[in-house]
Amino acid sequence: MKRYLSLMLLLAGGFSLAARERVPADSLVIGVLLGADAGGAIPFPFKNLPGTYNPYPQLNLSVGGTIGIPLDRSWSIVSGLGYKTVSLAADARVTNQKFQDKEHLQYFTGTTRARQRFSFIELPLYAMYRFKSDRDHLLLGVYHAWMTSGIFRVEPRKGFIGNQPDSFEAKMEEGMEEMRFDDALDSWDAGLLVGYERRIHPRATLGVRFSWGLKDIFKADNKFFDYSMLHLRGGVTLGCDLFRVPPRGERR
In sequence order, what are the residues at sequence separation of 6 or more whose Cβ sits closer than 8 angstroms to the Cβ of residue 213? Predict the structure, then answer.
């Protein structure tokens, strides 16, 4: 995470310096961003994905605001705040999934139905490149997110439980309690984002964005997962420029 923080500070410092050198400090664009997002957390490295894994992502609405500072005719630096929710259900066959059964740590192998839902406030920081026509925009940057709520639960269907890995001491057909890992979730996330926008109106854009988390969704001391789980999500956006403040020399 030190590398990520250093990268974020370097980007912010570099863009700020460029903005001071190329355009007046009061040149900016303020807008609103509406969208629909889908995604969730997946095991990483991918080799830890269950052999049978069928995800069902669900669309959720998002809303936010943006502030853009033009650096020149082609480049801008953009930031803002947004409130998002992503949710995902999945059918999976797991092996030696740890869970807390009263005071004992046990292991489950079998079929499950997992569900996860995360709501968060996101702070993006990215560079926007405008092609010559100014209709197409490429986005590349980073984000930081503060989790406001999180659910990560696994419902066992059929399988076996044991006190040790690969031990099958009891067969479970139905009625086993849901495994809840909500308390093991961490309170923040950070990662990379990339996107594309197309201007459909002098003040409106339509785009797509993808985000890849670089941080495990669970706390460092979690005892249920031996691998990381990272956020992976995407969505469509509709942006509208509300206010445009031109450079001082261009004001009438």
Answer: 41, 189, 190, 191, 230, 231, 232
